[in-house]
Amino acid sequence: MAGDWTASRFSGEFSADTKQNLRDLYSNRCAICRQRYESPFGHPETEAAHIHPAQHGGPDRETNGLLLCRRCHWGFDSGWLSLDGDRRIVVAGDETVSGYDYFNQFRDQSLLTPSTADLRPAERFIEVHRKLFGFEPIERGDRLTIGGLRSGELSLADGRRVCIEGAPDEALVVNCTVTAVGSEQVRCAHHRTLETRPATGPEIPDTPFDNTTEVSFDELSNRIQELKDDYVGVTQKWEWGRIFRKARIKSGLSYEEIAEKIDLEGASGLQIERSERVYEMFPEREFEEDGLSYSAIAELQRVFDSTDDIRVAYDCIIETGHPLTVKETRVWVEIMMADADVTREIVREEVETYEELRRGDPSESVRRILEVHAKYESAYEWE
């Protein structure tokens, strides 16, 4: 964990979409005890559980979630249970405490995981859980995303107080680095405030696949075509991503297989994957309508493997107040992909290779790109 963090949006509870996706991924079965209970009316007992806790900045996405029965959910959230790097169940070791015998029966068992490999629990979120609940020590130099702050402080599950030095009073979720670890207190240096209050996005309607067990690919094709006709840009790709994520979970098919099934112009396997990543970037649909274009976001997807990193880059661009054009974004991306230093001279040379930028104001393009890069570097810079 030292040397990295997860830059994520404060999410509160999982969205209705993510909850339903987790139910489908785990077939309403608890990922730990593997039991599946229903009420006499057919309502499942299982619940969506965060791995990297929501109050500590855990993102609203399937890879940060488990489907658990109420008892195992409590055990996972209270410090009885965690996971190791192989997604095997780890149990806290206090045999004298009531509850140990029940949870200990799951020790070293493999977690039930989805068949869709890219939506299985992510190690970076599991590692955060182990740190926050005492299964691994928090060490000096660890870089954490942590939330639930009140005036720069909070308490860990083991009762130790965490003090984030330099955090604004209104901060809820921050990036910080651990500077000192004691038996009663963990001290951290504030690096970046990610959220000051929970974001409230627009009302998001149901999708046609919420209450079905199978996907009609004719219906899927028609729905995607409707969205293609009704929306453009980031909004279109967000709507696509939301629908495709549900369809892929329910069908178990890959991006390419979905594309073959619907056979729709503009909906290739790559476009389906990219649209899902747009949806994952903005779980509450909190993108700027007049912000960075989808084509520019697609450029960012070329250089950043992690959705979290794409979101950080996107936020840095938006925060400058002057969103980059597609070509300006491409210049920045090409330089980073070449692993070159982003200097004024190199940026100017790259800008000059694009006629569209030469016809405009090349010096302004250079200035904007350098401003964005400086903000991006600041997001990951440590004192």
List keywords for this structure.
383 residues, 3 domains, five-stranded mixed β-sheet, two-stranded antiparallel sheet, HNH_nuc, HNH endonuclease, nuclease, endonuclease
Describe the structure.
The structure is a single chain. With 383 residues, the protein is α+β, with helices and mostly antiparallel strands. The chain folds into three domains: 16-195, no CATH class; 217-281, no CATH class; 306-379, no CATH class. The chain has helices at 16-25, 70-78, 100-104, 123-132, 217-230, 233-251, 255-262, 269-281, 294-303, 307-319, 326-337, 344-351, 355-359, 362-379, and strands spanning 47-50, 65-68, 81-83, 89-91, 143-147, 153-155, 161-165, 173-181, 185-195. The chain has a five-stranded mixed sheet, with no helix packed on it. A hairpin with a 5-residue loop joins strand 6 and strand 7. The chain is flat. Residues 1-11 and 198-202 have low confidence and may be disordered.
Shape designation: flat
Multimeric state of these chains? single chain
Helical content stands at: 40-55%
Integer average pLDDT: 86
Low-confidence parts, pLDDT < 50 over ≥5 residues? 1-11, 198-202
Number of domains: 3
InterPro entries: HNH_nuc
GO molecular function: endonuclease activity
Protein name: HNH endonuclease
Keywords: Endonuclease, Hydrolase, Nuclease
Could you give a short description of this structure?
This protein is an alpha+beta fold and 383 residues long. It has helices at 16-25, 70-78, 100-104, 123-132, 217-230, 233-251, 255-262, 269-281, 294-303, 307-319, 326-337, 344-351, 355-359, 362-379; strands spanning 47-50, 65-68, 81-83, 89-91, 143-147, 153-155, 161-165, 173-181, 185-195.
